[in-house]
Fold this protein.
Amino acid sequence: MARMFGFIGNRADLGAMVLEAHAAVLRVKRAPEEPLGWGVGFYQAGEVLLRRRPLDDRAVIDLAEAAADVRTDVLLGHVRKASVGALRTENTHPFRYRSWLWAETGTIGGFDRLRERLLEALPEFLRRNVRGETDSELSFYLFLSFLHDAGELEHPHVGYDAIAAALRASVALVDRLSAEEGMSQNAGNVLVTNGERMVALHRSGTMALRVFKGRYDVESLSGEDGVRRARIPSIDSTHCTMIASDLSAVPEGFRVVEPKQLVSLTRSEDPVIEAL
């Protein structure tokens, strides 16, 4: 099964605590004869970094373990059950373009007949960056093309409204093309970030989030002794939000995100949720 999560916060050392405390949420059991791959993308010292493993034959895929040594304040993780495209690094989420990271679950209906039409819809400079075979990567570049059309792709501080508009436009186009092929409306979820803001698009399955802020929440992650040993300065201003999708159950303390919603996450503000 697929699994996807992300976190964004105002402290690089807080992310590791959040992952460790919720490791069970991020574990995926592999069914017999079910090939799974995984990837994580994160930001360090102004760089966008990826760790991707297109095939992992272990019985349990543990994303918390995969990112345990990563010190970052923004991270995306994804476990892939291949539905479109071979088990190759180029087909493994997250996908990256410049400062943008994208992960997605779900499959575009009729994609085998739509692939060329979607490629043709992209500007040439984006089309030549497509490396793999998946519908998810093309969805990513379609989103970027709408940002480009709005004059926001090169903007160093893209606002939520522009990101949301590009997501809505790309989803609407893909749904229309699928419908033309006689397919029902597409499902699935998206997490996208440029390192400053993370936006989730939720359409199916279970998605939930949790906000950690201030001394009480930090102590709930590592205990008073852990906080004392870590000597976390300005602990009362700490803030981090974790979001996960395609869950088998909602973890304790998490808030459910209803279907057909967009969620905006930033380093220091509580999530904003609105209708897709």
